[in-house]
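Objective 1.3, modelling of assemblies. Example input:
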Amino acid sequence: KNEVEQSPQNLTAQEGEFITINCSYSVGISALHWLQQHPGGGIVSLFMLSSGKKKHGRLIATINIQEKHSSLHITASHPRDSAVYICAVRAQAGTALIFGKGTTLSVSS
Amino acid sequence: DTAVSQTPKYLVTQMGNDKSIKCEQNLGHDTMYWYKQDSKKFLKIMFSYNNKELIINETVPNRFSPKSPDKAHLNLHINSLELGDSAVYFCASSLGGGRGFYEQYFGPGTRLTVT
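Predicted structure (tokens):
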């Protein structure tokens, strides 16, 4: 079992819908990252958080340390949000990220 | 103004060859990483260097040898390439080895195809 589990694996939505992607992890962490990988392959860091909630534009990330769970929300989804969203954690004892398998989001107009 | 750059972007080579991928960052970071993304798009750490010193070396065949000539560069040399080495290799960098809360910046990736 992977130390970082994401759900759903694939997600399709209509433009304007509210999107939620979930991430659960089994190790102690110092930080959790949400990354976005576009169809072209580049990886961009969206959020890094260790508690509470962060918001950037239409994106919101939350984390519950006690439950070892994080969610990424996209409000008013748009076709340009179509990408793979990857949850990754930094374990307390090290620096390297441990990745989930990603959620492929496809938003149609 | 590229923050983390990798060369080449694409690399096609035959089994048994030796090849290198170069990575450079101009962010002033002191920690650099190599990740491998397999055909199922799953990312996994290979190596991590902090101030030119190896700090993480996951279970990677010793045909892979990272080299860090200085803090801004981390190159990956691969000997005797095998079909299973075909993947996308991402370089990344961040501040601070050890425990920390540092964002990682990724290079554009190098797509290696071994035929």
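Residues 51 and 63 of chain A are 6 Å apart (CA to CA).
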